[in-house]
Structure formats: C-alpha cells, structure tokens
Amino acid sequence: LASATATDQANPVDVLRRVFGYDSFRGTQQEIIGHVVSGGDALVLMPTGGGKSLCYQIPALVRPGVGVVVSPLIALMQDQVDALEELGVRAGFLNSTQDHAQRRSTEQAFLAGELDVLYLAPERLKLDTTLDLLDRGEVSVFAIDEAHCVAQWGHDFRPDYLELSVLHRRYPDVPRIALTATATPATREEIAERLQLTEARHFVADFDRPNIQYRIAPKNDPRKQLLKLLQDEHPGDAGIVYRLSRAEVERTAEFLSSNGINALPYHAGLDKPTRAEHQSRFLREDGVVMVATIAFGMGIDKPDVRFVAHLDLPKSIEGYYQETGRAGRDGLPSTAWMAYGLQDVMQQRKMIDNSDGDEAHRRMLGRHLDSMLALCETVECRRSRLLAYFGQDAAQPCGNCDTCLTPPESWDGTVAAQKLLSTIVRLKRERNQKFGAGQIIDILRGKNTTKVEQFQHAELSVFGVGSDLGDNEWRGVIRQLLAQGLLAVEGDYGTLVLTDVSGEVLRREDPRQVWLRTEPKRTPQAKAK
Ligand code: ADP
Ligand code: ZN
C-alpha cells in the first residue's frame, strides 16, 4: 500500500483520488480545501454527512506538517485513526483514555514528523505539556470539529472549547478550519468571535436534506404509534429511536423486542462494554433499531439509517436537526418521525424551571423550546420552517413533509381559548385555586369526577361550557396555547396560569384571534403484544 505522506508533492485532487479513492469533490469541498491549503482560515457549516472530514484531512496531507484535529468525540478517535490508517494515512490521537506509554509514543511520532493527522481532545489544550509539544513540532492546519461546542448559548456547550482561542494567539500563521453541522446565524457569529476567526471565510452549505421526510404526529400511545410506523413503513430497516429518559429507553427497547423488532438500548447508564457492543451491532448488523438517549449518535457514520424517531420532544431545533440528520446519509428516502403531545411541553417547561444556571440561561432554554414548539405546531411546510431557522430561504413548500402531504386544517379557536382562559381566571379569583390540564378539562367538559365533587367545581359558572370538544381536542387547545405563549405552566404539578398576553384573548372588545391546528384523527393502532 502506497503511503500517503505530506512530503508527497500532492495536490488536493490527487490526494482525493489516490488516498481516498473518490473521483470528485462534493459541493463546496474543493473551494474549502483550496482556501485552507493556501493558508486561509475557514468556518464551515455543513450538514451531517456532507463530507466535512475531507475538508481538513486533505489540507493535512497536502501542507507540510501535522494536521491537528480538535474533537470532543473521544470515544470515536480510535475508529477515526483506524479508518485513516487503513487508507495509508499516518494518524494518532491524544486523550484521557490512553496510558502514559501510549501517549509518549504518539508524542514522539508527532515530533519526528511521522504523523499526518493528530486527533486531540479539547481539554488537552489546557495543558502546558500539550502546547509545548505543539511548539516543538510542525502543525500544518488546526481543525476544530463540532465547533458549535464553543457557543455558550448553544445546546452542546463544552467549556474546554473556550480555550481554543489560544491557537490563534499562539500559532497565528497556522490556518484554522472550524467545522459544524449545526449553527444558526447567531451561533455562527458566536463561533467566529470566540475562536477569533474574524478573518475566516464562511462556507455555508445547503442544509436541506431532501430525502428526509419530516413528520410530527400527535402523541397518544407513542410506543404503539412507533411500532405501527416500523411495521407499515420500515420493516427490517435500521433506525434510531430517541427517548428523553434512560427508563423510557429501556422500556421502549423491550417493547419493540417483544414485538419482533431487533432493538437495542443505548444510554449513559449502561456499562461501557454493553454500550460498545450495542453500537458496533448497530453499525455492523443489518436492520438494528437503536433506542437511545441523545448520548447516542454524535459522529456515528452509518449511511443506511432509514428512520429517526423521536418519542419525546427535543429541546431545540438544532438538536432535532442534528438527530434527524442521522437518517438517510446515503441519499435514499428516509423518515424523520416524531410524536409530540401536551405532556412533552409540560415536562420540558418543568425541566427548564428546575435547571441550573441563571435567569438568562433559562430564558435561552425557553427560546430554544419555543422555536421547537413553533415547528411542531406550524401549518406550513416543516422543511421551510426548519431551513428558515438556519437562515436559509426555501423558495416553496417541499412536498415531502407531513404538512405538505396532508395540509392540516386550522380552525378559529378564539372562543375555545376564551373558555379555557376564563376557567383559569375564575378558579383563581373565586377560589384562589390553580389546577393542571386534567382538572381544567374535566370542568370545561362538565364531568362529575370525584375531584370535581371534592372541590365543588360543578358550581362554577364555566362548568360544562366546553362540552362541544372532546378530551383530546382540549388537550390540543392547551398544547397549542402553550406553544403560542398564551398560556404557561408553573411548578412541579404543571398548574396552568395566564401569561402577560393572555388578556388580549379575553378582551371584550376586539379580542385577539387564536388560530389552532385541527387535531388529526387518532391513527389506527399497531398490533402489539
Ligand atoms: P460529516 O463529517 O460532514 O458528517 P463525513 O466527512 O463523515 O461527513 O462524510 C460522510 C460520508 O461521505 C463519508 O462516508 C465520506 O467518506 C463520504 N464522502 C465525503 N466526501 C466525499 C466525496 N467527495 N466523494 C464521495 N464520498 C465522499
Ligand atoms: Zn414541506
């Protein structure tokens, strides 16, 4: 096997063909590589699967010296190094999983100019020993992978990334390339600022993933809804199912397994060997369904993931985009399906209320959630909304998302909203009480439950004024009012309270109109054990 060393008088296209075995560059790869090879800084925004790795691997091979790649994905470094070595590229890594001897031998190879690419965990750049090492060797390019980790208000912040500005100060002549698959225009600015990439050229790829069909369904029995999706549309396909909690991961994996699906759990609570085994079975076997928390997936390169299902609401659009982006990397039709309901909104709001960090941090989390909810409740093309979030205009509805395929109906929910909000007002004013969604709905529908009797809620003037709508429809009203900011939840019991703008709906004169999505009919249930 011919060794691909930096001393070869190579140009990028040669390296692409000879070392990586590809015929041509994709999208903006060639431009990016040309810019970095000639010494320029770059900020690259490219969706998952877009081909970011070559953007720094080829400059590392073409320029003299070692390409240093900073990556938070320590667990994947060995795989990345193995993959490069298989191509004849000399690669190594330095991270906390190594013993002293392993580290020493990598350091020596680096100093001797016997490496083309060196992967580095970000925390190592805090160490003087690492900086001394870099001082004594020759670095061809610094690549900062998963660069959004430097954004403090992003969804994936890693404090160690803040240290990376040292690279610019200490090695002003070494070109830097920062790469990420997920960044809004605001995050992009933050990355550029914090990494001192002020002179960098920005390369923003098309974020559209046309082969992914986006669908967001109301949640009633998520595991059975999922099973139906798998049985009807994805029998035998590989896919990822995301759940919020470890317990739900376990339960969902068991449920799928007992219904004949080849499903495995993955979360940070499983021991390391189990996680490694499940991950490698997912990668190597056909048709494995990985049920996981978001601990799973970063850096996973499996081209034929046919579906990604979210059974709980993601915390942000960035997370949603990144997770769904693991589907269909081979370009073939794939499904991004999500089930979402009132309980998700309640749960997420509660998590934000109870989160660490200051008020500003909580407000930021709230904004992330609001954007995610707006995507869930939109009656417009999901893809257009998604791309708009990343600052990209979609000219027309995509024709490959649920709202395009079956346009949702909307209805004037102003009166329903008034009934609901005034029930909350009356409970507060007349009884000094607050309740959660369940009790409010029982009052609106005029149900004589034990709890209604206990609190004598049948005596309220609003009792039964909402009997025209069913439970499910009322839950939909509440969910959408929460998403629109016309209603809020409070405390551990999820009591419903008004917001600053609720009053606009309750005004006697010219009340604010409230448009709501019609709740779709419940889908037929899957045959489950
Ligand atoms: P990213 O890091 O952006 O998620 P990768 O760098 O892992 O994406 O690339 C995704 C896949 O596309 C990989 O399997 C890679 O080998 C392949 N790939 C990248 N560039 C090209 C190219 N120019 N031609 C063919 N395949 C490519
Ligand atoms: Zn669409």
Automatic annotation (TrEMBL):
<feature type="domain" description="Helicase ATP-binding">
    <location>
        <begin position="33"/>
        <end position="201"/>
    </location>
</feature>
<dbReference type="InterPro" id="IPR002121">
    <property type="entry name" value="HRDC_dom"/>
</dbReference>
<dbReference type="Pfam" id="PF16124">
    <property type="entry name" value="RecQ_Zn_bind"/>
</dbReference>
<comment type="similarity">
    <text>Belongs to the helicase family. RecQ subfamily.</text>
</comment>
<dbReference type="Pfam" id="PF00570">
    <property type="entry name" value="HRDC"/>
</dbReference>
<dbReference type="InterPro" id="IPR011545">
    <property type="entry name" value="DEAD/DEAH_box_helicase_dom"/>
</dbReference>
<protein>
    <recommendedName>
        <fullName>DNA helicase RecQ</fullName>
        <ecNumber>5.6.2.4</ecNumber>
    </recommendedName>
</protein>
<keyword id="KW-0233">DNA recombination</keyword>
<dbReference type="Pfam" id="PF09382">
    <property type="entry name" value="RQC"/>
</dbReference>
<keyword id="KW-0227">DNA damage</keyword>
<keyword id="KW-0067">ATP-binding</keyword>
<feature type="domain" description="Helicase C-terminal">
    <location>
        <begin position="222"/>
        <end position="373"/>
    </location>
</feature>
<dbReference type="InterPro" id="IPR032284">
    <property type="entry name" value="RecQ_Zn-bd"/>
</dbReference>
<keyword id="KW-0234">DNA repair</keyword>
<dbReference type="InterPro" id="IPR036388">
    <property type="entry name" value="WH-like_DNA-bd_sf"/>
</dbReference>
<dbReference type="InterPro" id="IPR014001">
    <property type="entry name" value="Helicase_ATP-bd"/>
</dbReference>
<keyword id="KW-0547">Nucleotide-binding</keyword>
<dbReference type="Pfam" id="PF00271">
    <property type="entry name" value="Helicase_C"/>
</dbReference>
<keyword id="KW-0238">DNA-binding</keyword>
<dbReference type="InterPro" id="IPR044876">
    <property type="entry name" value="HRDC_dom_sf"/>
</dbReference>
<dbReference type="InterPro" id="IPR018982">
    <property type="entry name" value="RQC_domain"/>
</dbReference>
<dbReference type="InterPro" id="IPR006293">
    <property type="entry name" value="DNA_helicase_ATP-dep_RecQ_bac"/>
</dbReference>
<dbReference type="InterPro" id="IPR027417">
    <property type="entry name" value="P-loop_NTPase"/>
</dbReference>
<dbReference type="InterPro" id="IPR010997">
    <property type="entry name" value="HRDC-like_sf"/>
</dbReference>
<dbReference type="Pfam" id="PF00270">
    <property type="entry name" value="DEAD"/>
</dbReference>
<dbReference type="InterPro" id="IPR004589">
    <property type="entry name" value="DNA_helicase_ATP-dep_RecQ"/>
</dbReference>
<dbReference type="InterPro" id="IPR001650">
    <property type="entry name" value="Helicase_C-like"/>
</dbReference>
<dbReference type="GO" id="GO:0004386">
    <property type="term" value="F:helicase activity"/>
</dbReference>
<keyword id="KW-0413">Isomerase</keyword>
<keyword id="KW-0862">Zinc</keyword>
<keyword id="KW-0378">Hydrolase</keyword>
<keyword id="KW-0347">Helicase</keyword>
<keyword id="KW-0479">Metal-binding</keyword>
